[in-house]
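Open question from group meeting: does this chain pack into something compact, or does most of it stay loose? Before anyone orders reagents, we agreed to write out a predicted structure and look at it together. Recording both the input and the output here so the notebook holds the full record.
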Amino acid sequence: MKSTSIKKLIKDIQARSLRLTVIGSGYVGLPTAALFAEAGFHVIAVDIKPEVVRAVSNGFSQINEPHLNEFISRNVQAGRLKATSNPIEALNQTNAVIISVQTPIDQNKNPILSFLMEALEDVGKNMKRGTLVVISSTVPPGTMLRKVKPKLESLSGLNADDEFYLAYVPERIAPGKALREFVESPRLVGSVGPNSTKIAAQLFKTVCKKVIETDAATAEIAKLAENTFRDINIAFANQLALICEQSGVDVMEAIELANTHPRVNIHTLGPGVGGPCLPKDPYLLINRTRPTKHDVINAARRINDYMPKHIVKLILEALKKTGKNIRNSRIAIFGTAYKGNVDDSKLSPSKPIIHELIKLGAKTTVYDPHCNESFEAKKAKSLHDAIKDADCLAIITDHTEFKNLNLKEIKALMNEKPAIIDGRRIINPHIAEESGFTYYGIGLGKPHKR
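Structure tokens returned:
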């Protein structure tokens, strides 16, 4: 019976007759649903937000992701992609499910798994024998074996890897590159047993160019290790920047020289770390471990969380140097998205910077050509509107639009003795000062002239 079930599932995958439910239609779930529909599967995308379901049903996406709209439109018209807010209705029509719901952290940095548990409740109570269940949500180590597997077995009365199949396949995509990276990045398939591995790997091979098979526990840690490594590397770059500021050295030149070593790759510094993954995943990785005073992960988090405060410190220094006080000074903030060329403001370093400036009495205006968030500051309609009569310009997000600014034009619109705080180091310091600005950049030690 079991052998027949496995063979049938694999045959259905190969024939594209497998029907798939994707629970969660956000930045990961919706590209997932669209790509599997594009590969020929019939897919039902599930989301609790009526506006998301409405958008997909009408053939478009509320997520600003290159080519996603055309994928959704094409597959909705072809009848391969549908959307609903009723997971039970979807599960009753399909024999495989991918769960891609959020797993945020609370104020104490502990994981919130309630969205995942609610999805598992629906799946477990409505799961048929021979169903493939894939978890794509990022989870703390041990979640698959300690929580997911026993919950599904208890609710369904079925045994994992025997009567149903269970795998952990973490996402490896970034906003703005989601569809391409879903296909091209090697995909980890970590299962609770060999049968689950075989079936899940077959499914993802229909979309992903390379699939790497492992067990669920290892895949959980590998996924978290990827983002934690990046967070630690960024923290090192940021600490190096603070050292360079005190040493009269330009960190950009120091990093460029260090990276000429064949075994060195120092990441890019910045005003802090934002987004749905990097500020969260390190805490998921260490969630169940015993605390130790020798803790590089928490140390890195503290450094990156400090950087928005450092931006405010540089703004205060620049205003003081130009003879101005923060209270009633006009500050223009370029960028509220957490990184360049995306519209997502989740955990953006701009938020604490803006809130602190408002608290200090600064008249703060933001401009972001991609993101609608203003974090309670005044939102400018244009770049020129943002900088008009400003005393200081702070660049927080490295959007392409900010990388070739006309400094002479900007200076003419700003107040006398204008200052620039370059949180992304995208402006040439010498050109800025030659244009009449007081310039402060992260990691730029004074004096920097040669």
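Observations to bring back to the group:
The chain is about 45% helix and 15% strand.
The chain has a mean pLDDT of 95.
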